[in-house]
Amino acid sequence: MSKLPYSFYQNTDVNDLAVQLLGKLLFTRVNGELTGGMIVETEAYNGVDDKASHAYGGRFTDRTKVMYEEGGLSYVYLCYGIHHLFNVVTASKGTPHAVLIRGIEPFEGIDVMLRRRNMVSLKPNITAGPGALSKALGIDKCLNAKDLLGDEVWIEDNGLVFNEDQIVASARVGVDYAEDHALLPWRYYVKGNKFVSKPNK
DNA sequence: GTGCGGATGAACT
DNA sequence: GTTCATCCGCACT
Length: 201
Description:
The chain has a single domain, classed as Methylpurine-DNA glycosylase (MPG) (3-methyladenine DNA Glycosylase, Chain A). The chain is built from four helices and nine strands. It has helices spanning 6-9, 14-20, 110-116, 130-137; strands at residues 2-3, 25-30, 33-46, 73-79, 83-90, 97-108, 153-157, 167-170, 187-190.
């Protein structure tokens, strides 16, 4: 297995990239503890033209500035004051594309994830949903703006590729505020996988 | 400096 | 289906 190269993240078609991330392995090493899982659900956020994106209209703030960096960095932010959401920054410098990781299937360090989630047995909700998987992987603001080829958070290619008929595209979750962009089918998930988040149609 | 509300999840009724 | 935990980013004064 090998880490995805920078060239992977440079893709300017953020939807294509969101699909390609399905089946890849997301790892973190926090306090020396290795955890990881296979990405089974993503959402594409198409930068300045996307009303659901934090960078819509070119908004550039302390929080959103990392999205304007070169693809291959992390973008982690706090949502509802409680949940840290993990995104992959993509495209080239100046183009604030990002892909939200919404679900992973546990692969490595399951005991550590159970402890972090206060769970005794493995159930889908350990990593189904963006807030849940961040907690299981130990992701918080400290992992914002990290190099995805570093040794704190990274993504590996295990060679697995899904067929088109194994992938479902649907509307993104929790973006009602995005008006006419709320219904765009930019959420992608692996059909039938138990670690896809709740609104699973 | 102030006020509003969110790319959610879990525990309720 | 409804409620609420719990913070800070962001727009505006």
